[in-house]
User: What shape does this take?
Amino acid sequence: MPREHGAWGILLIPFATAVGVSGVFDLKVALLLASILCFFVARTSYLKDNARWTNLLLATSFACVVPLLFLWQLWWLAAFGAVATPLAFRKTERSITMQLLAVCGLTLTAPAAWYTATLQIDRRAWLLWLLNALYFAGGVFYVKMHVAAAVGRKAFESLLEKLRFGASVLVYYGALAILGVILWPVTLAYAPVVVRAVAGVCRLSPTLRIKRLGWTEVGYSIAFAVILIATLR
Assistant: This one.
């Protein structure tokens, strides 16, 4: 199974938001979900040099997507796959650029699911992708901030020092807050994580509880999905 547990959320939450907003979960969508899951797990098998499981999972993923291409004529899915494949089948990199690029690739499940559910590639498909990509990109900055504080064993002596250390996170979430005002009420879904970012910076410490941080991020991601679906329906 994939070791990058956070990637499961980045992969599946956008898919869920698209399905929730469209209100459609039929055979087409189920086949797409099965194809995505097999493809994602195949990536881990490939990185572990397990050719047998890689080939089996890729074959299953392809078998699931064939009816979508040839029966329902959903040819845009081939384009999404062409973008996702080179991003998926490479070793995990810790650079911020590659992580943000991975976020952009994983969140393509939103327009792919919307397209499969509604048979349309329209403005809403790309809006779902953008909103999800911006949300999870913020999560990358936020988690990296906590990891950097722990690795550097940073002992913060004042609130001002914490604000300086977390400046990039505050700037990013400040921009999301401004975007939320402009696109109200769609980006109300960002409100919980904007508050979380400010509180997280103020409580910065060199102690990192990675499991607690991970499960907290899962909770915020689910809240984001629920609010986004409610505002876009």
About this structure: The radius of gyration is 19 Å. The chain has a mean pLDDT of 91. The first helix runs from residue 5 to 22.
